[in-house]
Design brief:
This protein is an alpha/beta fold. It has 7 helices and 5 strands, in the order E-H-E-H-E-H-E-E-H-H-H-H. The protein has a 5-stranded parallel sheet with strand order 2-1-3-4-5, with helices on both faces. It comes from Halosimplex aquaticum.
Length: 193
Protein backbone atom coordinates (compact mmCIF):
# COMPACT_ATOMS: atom_id res chain seq x y z
CA UNK A 1 0.00 0.00 0.00
CA UNK A 2 1.79 3.01 -1.26
CA UNK A 3 -0.13 6.28 -1.33
CA UNK A 4 -2.89 5.92 1.24
CA UNK A 5 -3.95 3.59 4.02
CA UNK A 6 -6.69 2.11 1.83
CA UNK A 7 -5.34 -0.25 -0.85
CA UNK A 8 -6.25 0.65 -4.43
CA UNK A 9 -7.64 -2.04 -6.74
CA UNK A 10 -7.96 -1.40 -10.47
CA UNK A 11 -10.52 -3.56 -12.30
CA UNK A 12 -9.88 -3.79 -16.05
CA UNK A 13 -12.89 -5.63 -17.46
CA UNK A 14 -14.80 -5.02 -20.72
CA UNK A 15 -18.07 -6.53 -19.44
CA UNK A 16 -19.73 -3.76 -17.37
CA UNK A 17 -21.90 -6.16 -15.33
CA UNK A 18 -18.89 -8.25 -14.33
CA UNK A 19 -16.83 -5.16 -13.46
CA UNK A 20 -19.67 -3.75 -11.35
CA UNK A 21 -20.05 -7.07 -9.52
CA UNK A 22 -16.35 -7.05 -8.61
CA UNK A 23 -16.69 -3.41 -7.55
CA UNK A 24 -19.62 -4.24 -5.26
CA UNK A 25 -17.68 -7.10 -3.71
CA UNK A 26 -14.56 -5.00 -3.05
CA UNK A 27 -15.71 -1.40 -2.49
CA UNK A 28 -16.23 -1.75 1.27
CA UNK A 29 -12.57 -2.61 1.87
CA UNK A 30 -10.68 -1.04 -1.01
CA UNK A 31 -10.55 2.04 -3.17
CA UNK A 32 -11.75 0.66 -6.50
CA UNK A 33 -11.03 2.09 -9.94
CA UNK A 34 -12.72 0.63 -13.00
CA UNK A 35 -11.74 0.56 -16.66
CA UNK A 36 -13.59 -1.04 -19.58
CA UNK A 37 -10.61 -1.45 -21.92
CA UNK A 38 -6.90 -2.07 -21.83
CA UNK A 39 -6.11 1.49 -22.90
CA UNK A 40 -8.41 2.95 -20.23
CA UNK A 41 -6.87 0.63 -17.65
CA UNK A 42 -3.36 1.82 -18.49
CA UNK A 43 -4.55 5.43 -18.30
CA UNK A 44 -5.94 4.85 -14.78
CA UNK A 45 -2.86 2.98 -13.62
CA UNK A 46 -0.37 4.86 -11.45
CA UNK A 47 1.92 4.25 -8.48
CA UNK A 48 -1.05 4.30 -6.08
CA UNK A 49 -2.56 1.11 -7.55
CA UNK A 50 -1.74 -1.93 -5.43
CA UNK A 51 -3.64 -4.68 -7.28
CA UNK A 52 -4.91 -4.94 -10.86
CA UNK A 53 -7.71 -7.39 -11.69
CA UNK A 54 -7.19 -7.86 -15.41
CA UNK A 55 -9.47 -9.56 -17.93
CA UNK A 56 -7.34 -11.42 -20.45
CA UNK A 57 -9.62 -11.28 -23.50
CA UNK A 58 -10.78 -7.75 -24.32
CA UNK A 59 -11.37 -6.08 -27.67
CA UNK A 60 -8.55 -3.78 -28.66
CA UNK A 61 -5.65 -4.06 -26.24
CA UNK A 62 -5.70 -7.56 -24.72
CA UNK A 63 -5.04 -8.32 -21.08
CA UNK A 64 -1.78 -10.03 -22.10
CA UNK A 65 -0.56 -6.79 -23.72
CA UNK A 66 -1.74 -4.67 -20.78
CA UNK A 67 0.20 -6.94 -18.42
CA UNK A 68 3.31 -6.65 -20.57
CA UNK A 69 3.05 -2.84 -20.53
CA UNK A 70 2.54 -2.81 -16.75
CA UNK A 71 5.73 -4.84 -16.30
CA UNK A 72 7.61 -2.73 -18.88
CA UNK A 73 6.70 0.41 -16.91
CA UNK A 74 8.21 -1.14 -13.78
CA UNK A 75 5.14 -0.58 -11.64
CA UNK A 76 5.12 -2.45 -8.35
CA UNK A 77 1.45 -3.43 -8.41
CA UNK A 78 0.33 -7.04 -8.28
CA UNK A 79 -1.68 -8.34 -11.24
CA UNK A 80 -4.32 -11.05 -11.15
CA UNK A 81 -5.62 -12.28 -14.47
CA UNK A 82 -9.37 -12.82 -14.02
CA UNK A 83 -10.50 -14.49 -17.19
CA UNK A 84 -12.59 -17.13 -18.92
CA UNK A 85 -9.49 -18.26 -20.84
CA UNK A 86 -8.27 -21.62 -19.51
CA UNK A 87 -4.54 -21.43 -18.81
CA UNK A 88 -2.13 -23.05 -21.24
CA UNK A 89 1.66 -23.14 -21.46
CA UNK A 90 1.66 -19.59 -22.87
CA UNK A 91 1.17 -18.36 -19.30
CA UNK A 92 4.75 -19.37 -18.44
CA UNK A 93 6.11 -16.12 -19.86
CA UNK A 94 3.34 -13.77 -18.76
CA UNK A 95 4.49 -12.55 -15.34
CA UNK A 96 1.12 -12.30 -13.56
CA UNK A 97 0.82 -12.81 -9.80
CA UNK A 98 -2.44 -14.81 -9.78
CA UNK A 99 -4.69 -16.44 -12.37
CA UNK A 100 -8.41 -16.85 -11.72
CA UNK A 101 -10.77 -18.59 -14.13
CA UNK A 102 -14.28 -17.18 -14.43
CA UNK A 103 -16.80 -17.53 -13.03
CA UNK A 104 -15.38 -16.59 -9.64
CA UNK A 105 -16.98 -16.12 -6.24
CA UNK A 106 -16.78 -13.12 -3.95
CA UNK A 107 -14.73 -14.99 -1.36
CA UNK A 108 -12.26 -16.15 -4.02
CA UNK A 109 -11.78 -12.58 -5.26
CA UNK A 110 -11.35 -11.21 -1.73
CA UNK A 111 -8.84 -13.93 -0.85
CA UNK A 112 -6.84 -13.26 -4.00
CA UNK A 113 -6.67 -9.50 -3.42
CA UNK A 114 -5.72 -10.01 0.23
CA UNK A 115 -3.01 -12.53 -0.67
CA UNK A 116 -1.55 -10.20 -3.28
CA UNK A 117 -1.48 -7.32 -0.79
CA UNK A 118 0.22 -9.54 1.80
CA UNK A 119 2.77 -10.61 -0.80
CA UNK A 120 3.54 -6.94 -1.51
CA UNK A 121 4.08 -6.28 2.20
CA UNK A 122 6.28 -9.39 2.41
CA UNK A 123 8.36 -8.18 -0.54
CA UNK A 124 8.84 -4.78 1.13
CA UNK A 125 9.88 -6.49 4.36
CA UNK A 126 12.28 -8.77 2.53
CA UNK A 127 13.85 -5.78 0.75
CA UNK A 128 14.25 -3.97 4.06
CA UNK A 129 15.80 -7.09 5.58
CA UNK A 130 18.36 -7.43 2.77
CA UNK A 131 19.25 -3.75 3.07
CA UNK A 132 19.71 -3.91 6.84
CA UNK A 133 21.75 -7.12 6.68
CA UNK A 134 23.99 -5.51 4.06
CA UNK A 135 24.47 -2.49 6.35
CA UNK A 136 25.24 -4.81 9.26
CA UNK A 137 27.78 -6.80 7.21
CA UNK A 138 29.49 -3.61 6.05
CA UNK A 139 29.81 -2.30 9.61
CA UNK A 140 31.05 -5.65 10.90
CA UNK A 141 33.70 -5.73 8.17
CA UNK A 142 35.01 -2.26 9.04
CA UNK A 143 34.48 -1.82 12.80
CA UNK A 144 35.87 -3.69 15.77
CA UNK A 145 33.65 -5.74 18.07
CA UNK A 146 34.21 -3.14 20.79
CA UNK A 147 33.11 -0.27 18.53
CA UNK A 148 29.99 -2.18 17.52
CA UNK A 149 29.14 -3.15 21.10
CA UNK A 150 29.39 0.48 22.25
CA UNK A 151 27.12 1.91 19.55
CA UNK A 152 23.39 2.25 20.29
CA UNK A 153 22.38 2.62 16.64
CA UNK A 154 24.10 -0.67 15.83
CA UNK A 155 22.08 -2.29 18.65
CA UNK A 156 18.88 -0.88 17.14
CA UNK A 157 19.95 -2.19 13.72
CA UNK A 158 20.40 -5.68 15.16
CA UNK A 159 17.02 -5.47 16.94
CA UNK A 160 15.27 -4.47 13.71
CA UNK A 161 16.98 -7.30 11.79
CA UNK A 162 15.83 -9.78 14.46
CA UNK A 163 12.29 -8.35 14.34
CA UNK A 164 12.08 -8.64 10.55
CA UNK A 165 13.61 -12.13 10.64
CA UNK A 166 10.89 -13.18 13.08
CA UNK A 167 8.15 -11.65 10.90
CA UNK A 168 9.51 -13.27 7.75
CA UNK A 169 10.05 -16.56 9.56
CA UNK A 170 6.41 -16.55 10.61
CA UNK A 171 5.35 -15.83 7.03
CA UNK A 172 7.56 -18.66 5.78
CA UNK A 173 6.27 -21.21 8.25
CA UNK A 174 8.20 -20.68 11.47
CA UNK A 175 11.77 -21.20 10.32
CA UNK A 176 14.19 -21.66 13.22
CA UNK A 177 17.73 -20.30 13.33
CA UNK A 178 19.84 -18.14 11.05
CA UNK A 179 21.11 -21.01 8.90
CA UNK A 180 17.59 -22.28 8.09
CA UNK A 181 16.38 -18.75 7.52
CA UNK A 182 19.21 -17.86 5.14
CA UNK A 183 18.85 -21.17 3.29
CA UNK A 184 15.13 -20.53 2.82
CA UNK A 185 15.74 -16.99 1.54
CA UNK A 186 18.38 -18.25 -0.86
CA UNK A 187 15.96 -20.91 -2.09
CA UNK A 188 13.30 -18.24 -2.66
CA UNK A 189 15.63 -15.95 -4.58
CA UNK A 190 17.01 -18.86 -6.65
CA UNK A 191 13.46 -19.87 -7.52
CA UNK A 192 12.61 -16.35 -8.72
CA UNK A 193 15.45 -16.15 -11.17
Amino acid sequence: MKGSDTPVVLIVEDEPDVAETYNLWLADEYEVRMAQSGDEGLAKLDDDVDVVLLDRMMPGLSGDEVLKRIRDRGLECRVAMVTAVEPDFDILEMGFDAYLCKPIRSEQLHDTVENLLERSEYDDLLQEYYSLVETQATLEATKSSTELADHEEYDRLQERIDEIRDDLGDALGGIEGDEDFIATLRGLSDGEE
